[in-house]
């Protein structure tokens, strides 16, 4: 059940009504299914409503945004941070809808960037590929944890235990091979020079229980790799499809819809979108996969961002400005969406706070604590890893 509120002017032709009486407010509440949303769109159009404002909440805004937009209404998606109500007042769904309507009526909102359909489809594919890649990394970490449990130190010798040599050894261990020398003989390339180190690293307590778990984890890694390759192929096909001109589009139909305009602009680029990805690939630090993510997040029509500073601010790469008493303090950048910044402009992780046991050894405790304990001739409690 989703609430809705709309305000419209209802002054008579004589203009005898006071300015405060010209606006009327109506409320509605119903299930978020297609028939109800389309019926609401017809009612709003009949009342003369032109603009619909909705708060960005997960994926629940999408049916309202696109179905009401298909009814001829101008839909605005606004950031939840920009539409917070006055503190101290009650908060309900109905009051939130009224507050959104009032802010829209006063012109105090700005719409968020909602790309056209081709960009959204490309974004779905790239974000799904990112999720699968992260899942595969977690499974690989579980494999290494399993090997450590069996006292197999393969990661100390091999840079990548899922390389050609490492994967051959893992498959042989699943098949029942336990001899460290036989496993080390499977090394290829530069790994052959580390034969003695491999023998020592592969000498452990690997049992059938570990082999069964390792077989399941390796099958999961292979399945995720297959899905990632399939998504990459779909992304490349979609880029080529968007770049191809539509033969059914007439000379004046290119600006009919945002989707048609986006496809026409992609087709007008030199080499299409694949050519644009090749040019982005020439930038140091950006590969083909990252270039695909950039196109999926910001699109290929950058007119939505008036200046490069607007794009940097949208990607949450610029610090917030905090000014008080004539003093400017740079604030932390805001939280970005999962794909707009994390894939192509990762921030370094925050410096971890030292634990009491490690701080006394490294001397970092004085910098970690906000206050320092005054000196005392009596010995205090000693911190150690054992907790005594």
Give an account of the 3D structure.
This protein has 388 residues and is mainly alpha-helical. Helices cover 46% and strands 9% of the residues. It has 14 helices and six strands. The strands form three sheets. The chain has a two-stranded antiparallel sheet. Strands 3-4 form a two-stranded parallel ribbon. The protein has a two-stranded antiparallel sheet with strand order 5-6. Strand 5 and strand 6 (327-330) form a beta hairpin. Helix 5 packs across helix 8. The protein starts with a strand and ends in a 20-residue tail after the last helix. Residues 12-21, 341-349, 358-362 and 364-388 have low confidence and may be disordered.
Give me some keywords for this one.
two-stranded antiparallel sheet; disordered C terminus; two-stranded parallel ribbon; 388 residues; mainly alpha; 46% helix
Biggest β-sheet strands, sense, barrel:
2 strands, antiparallel
Low-pLDDT sequence parts: 12-21, 341-349, 358-362, 364-388
* Structural class determined from secondary elements: mainly alpha
Count of DSSP-assigned helices: 14
Task: Name the average pLDDT.
Answer: 79
Cα radius of gyration in angstroms: 30 Å
Strand content: 5-15%
Tell me the number of strands.
Answer: 6
| Strand arrangement, major sheet | 1-2
SSE arrangement, N to C: EEHEHEHHHHHHHHHHEEHH
Distance separating the two termini: 56 Å
| Helical fraction | 40-55%
Shape: elongated
Topology:
Layout: E1 2-9, E2 23-30, H1 34-46, E3 51-55, H2 62-70, E4 74-78, H3 93-105, H4 117-149, H5 164-175, H6 180-184, H7 195-201, H8 208-243, H9 258-268, H10 272-281, H11 288-298, H12 308-314, E5 321-324, E6 327-330, H13 356-362, H14 365-368
Parallel strand pairs: 3-4
Antiparallel strand pairs: 1-2, 5-6
